[in-house]
Amino acid sequence: MSKAMDDFRLKLGGREYVPIIVGGMGVDISTAELALEAARLGGIGHISDAMVPTVSDRRFNTKFVQEKQKKYKYNIGNTDKSVVKFDLKRLAEAQRLFVSRTMESKKGDGAVFINCMEKLTMNSPRDTLQTRLLAAMDSGIDGITLSAGLHLGSMELMKDHPRIHDVLIGIIVSSARALRPFLKRAAKYKRLPDYITVEGPLAGGHLGFGADDWQEYDLKTIVNDVLVFLKENELNIPVVSAGGVFSGTDAVEFLESGASAVQVATRFTVTHECGLPEKTKHHYLEAVEDDIVVNTISPTGYPMRMLRQSPGIGSGIRPNCEAFGYILDSKGHCQYVDAYNRELEKNPENISVQDKTCLCTQFRKFKIWTCGHNVYRLKDTTHKLEDGKYQLLSAEEVFQDYQFSKDHSIKLPERKISAVSNISLVAA
Question: What confidence tier does 425 reach under pLDDT thresholds 50, 70, 90?
Answer without folding.
Answer: very low
